Amino acid sequence: MRIIERKNSLKGSLIAVAVAGFCCEASAHVVLDKSEARIGASYKAVLAVPHGCEGSATVRLTVSVPEGMIAVKPIPKPGWTIAVTRGAYARSYAFMHGMQMSEGVKEISWSGGKLEDSFYDEFGFAGFIADSLKAGDKLAFPVVQECETGVAKWVEVAAAGQDPHALKYPAPQLRLAGGASSGGLVAGDLTISSPWSRATPGGAKVGGGYLAIRNSGKEPDRLIAVSSAVATSVEVHEMTTKDGVMTMRAVEGGLVIAPGQTVTLAPGGFHLMLMGLKEPLQQGRPVGITLEFERAGKVAVDLDVLGVGAQGPAAGAEGQGGKEHMNH
Fold first, then answer.
1. Full-prediction pTM beyond 0.70?
2. Which fold has domain 3-179?
3. Where does the chain hold its CATH 2.60.40.2230 domain(s)?
């Protein structure tokens, strides 16, 4: 594998992306495997490419790095050549150990390989989300997918008030959460972190939900109800294995979160069951749920929907809830 670095203006390529039409119909989008990142923290971006262009194999993938993601480095990919374009940032950003960064990688392109339409693959890079950004903002990662025949340009960004799901060729988007020091979503004495789910195949009526709940208070709390607009009902279930036999049952009376402990809902133990799905859970499209606690009250949470076979959020994103007490 060769890494080629070139330093020139992106103006021409960005204009071409903005005005060009799209040639390829797609049944699934190029998306970020992890669609949320914390401000002031490292972030590993993984672009999931589920198909080619109307049956044609992908031979080049180019992503534009948004303003505010700094210190970017592409991840080597066997069989592909990586080319990076560097340029000046719109402003100078504080980085680690008091450093100031005013330029860096603005575009990454993988080429030289061949991803058949019938295969799925991932292209990755790592960087840092500047601490000057704001929680709730979204960063768009325009992607141009070139195939042996045709080009798919995933560059559309929803305007204010527009539903991004209505776009035909949406750019992958990253939602920004509070700084890493916040450790997750806080509700009373509880901290909720690492919420995620898996994509479901078409026609599936059941999905799973996973997260961690930390109780930093002096009194126990209890998760007494869960609801979601995408399911007719949501229940807390527990999976156990005894004498080689796996069983699953609904948790009666609510799930207790004891003082000073973290309850982790994960595959193979406690987890949420979203039953009677009204639509499939799609990778890259977060699913909203509402958790109701006995003391902390109702808390709205978005589950990041990962791939069908995902085992959890990327390394570095899952530790916010702590692992000192995992219930199974």
1. no
2. Immunoglobulin-like (2.60.40)
3. 3-179
